[in-house]
Amino acid sequence: METAMAKKYYPTVGETLVTKTLANGLRVLLVPKPAYHQTYAMFAVNYGGIDVRYQPAGVSEMVEDPEGIAHFLEHKLFEKEDHDAFDLFGQTGASANAFTGATSTAYLFSTSTKLSQNLKTLLDFVQMPYFSDKTVAKERGIIGQEIQMYQDDPGWLLYYGIIGNLYPGHPVARDVTGTIDSIAKITPERLYQAYRTFYQPSNMTLTLVGSFNAAAIMAQIADDQAQKTFAPSTPIVRGVGFDGDLATILPYRAADLPVIRPKSAIGIKGQVDVQADLEGTKYKLAIEVLLEMVFGDSSPLYQQWYDEGLVDDSFAADYIAGRTFNYATISGDADDPSAMSDAVAAVIARGADQPALTAERFERILQAALGKYYMSLNSLEQTANQLSSQSFTGLNAFEVVDALKSLTLEDVKAAAVSFFDVDAVSVFHVRPEAKA
After folding, report:
1. Which CA distances in Å does 48 have to 37, 101, 132, 383?
2. Bridge partners for 30 per DSSP
3. Where is the signal peptide (predicted)?
4. Does residue 390 share a domain with residue 300?
5. Do 264 and 230 have their domain in common?
6. Which of 140, 144, 141, 96 lies closest to 118, judged by CA?
7. Where does a domain end: 193, 213, 238?
8. Alpha-carbon distance 313 to 333, whole Å?
9. Reported confidence tier of residue 278, pLDDT bands at 50, 70, 90
10. CA distance linking residue 52 with residue 103, whole number of Å
11. Of 43, 73, 116, 151, which one's alpha carbon is 20 to 30 angstroms from that of 425?
């Protein structure tokens, strides 16, 4: 349903957000920054690597696409029958790119000149697909080389190894590029079917941050969309993407590679279904603060383990949450990977009984997190990224600051109780190959 253009000022961050939902369902987010000379634009779709099982419009049953199709589609949208969109951006001096994640795909450009022209290029190449047998066959070779390059990377293997332990069989445990075998099954027909299902304007968000007149840009976007013909919007029915049990966890696996030092990863599978709302966002923030308080490089544990030679400066803890998954990874290089993973698991087993969870330390970590967030809003790219990713949850990046400011130590301790579950822990090691 079309909405009127709305403008809201967020005093906490000193930013103004202009929003409008067009008649075709496309949501537009604009953040004018008059003091900047550049503009960053991102056209995102709520469709990513895990979305391999779905019900196409007009079809009564679920279909299952080959792994890697969302990433493949992202690559192919740039190439048209008689031109490449990258060339059009290059002619104006704009820088363009795209990326595919587990749950979304985004197309973007940054420019300091000819914004209207570049914006039209972005809208046109994303909304006018062209796939042929010839171009699809060529792309298989290009992406195939990309896949082979990743598969030889120890860090890549460690990351997907631990996710594979936490979510065996789930598409989140496989790289969005797919496999050599899976991309061989991608055809123009499959690409068009996935495109028609997910690239509906109502399943997309267009975000611009930078130097522009919001009313003029909004008018250009609305006019562009009004001149195009779109199929009626239909509900998107997604499947989980695998037939396994979401509760299953593989406790341990290892791989031998030609590495000098071993690598260790400890994964924690979230047992709470994180909702895409303000409370869910606050829970995610609590987990991130918890991990920083307990495992961050300013924590007593990190300092002790570093001094003992158990970890080095590659040691890091991260938390990821999305549709049907949420997990933490604590990983790094280690001379004794088993000693490192055992030490981390012992800490997790203590639940909320963590010496690092003090009021003084919480305040310090919270202020650092707020400072980092405020700094990120000085970047056009990061602001657009955050607004775009949050838009599919019904929130916006400027509201996240208030959620972070309202966080308490008790919220973090409650998150530790639910998240630090020793039965939800898994370990993956990358070991040096035995010498012949």
Report:
1. 32, 5, 22, 21
2. 18, 208
3. none
4. yes
5. no
6. 96
7. 238
8. 9
9. confident
10. 11
11. 151
Residues 421 and 355 in one domain: yes
- Tokens 């792994």 locate to 67
Find the mean pLDDT for residues 276-286: 87
Q: Which two tokens stand for residue 219?
A: 């008018």
In a domain, 92, yes or no: yes
CB 263 within 8 A of CB 331: yes
CB atoms near residue 81 (< 10 Å): 8
Across-strand partners of 97? 108
Structural domain including 147 reads 6-238
| Active centre residues (catalytic) | 74
Q: Is the pLDDT of residue 241 over 70?
A: no
Q: Is 201 exposed, middle or buried (0-12, 13-18, 19+ CB in 10 A)?
A: buried
Which ranges of 43-114 does DSSP label H, i.e. alpha helix?
69-77, 85-91
Local structure of residue 66 (DSSP, 8 states): P
Cα distance between residue 151 and residue 325, in whole Å: 23
State pLDDT tens for residues 127-167: 999 999 999 999 999 999 989 888 889 999 999 999 999 99
- CATH at 401: 3.30.830.10
Q: Tens of pLDDT along 96-117?
A: 999 999 999 999 999 999 999 9
- Burial status of residue 216 (CB atoms within 10 A of its CB: 0-12, 13-18, 19 or more): exposed
Average pLDDT, the chain: 94
The Cα angle at residue 240 between residues 234 and 246, in degrees rounded to 5: 155
Q: Are 214 and 20 in contact (CB under 8 A)?
A: no
Burial 338-375 (b: 16+ CB within 10 A, else e): ebbbebbbebbeeebebebbeeebbeebbeebeeebee
Predicted structure pTM score: 0.94
State pLDDT tens for residues 253-269.
Answer: 999 999 999 999 999 99
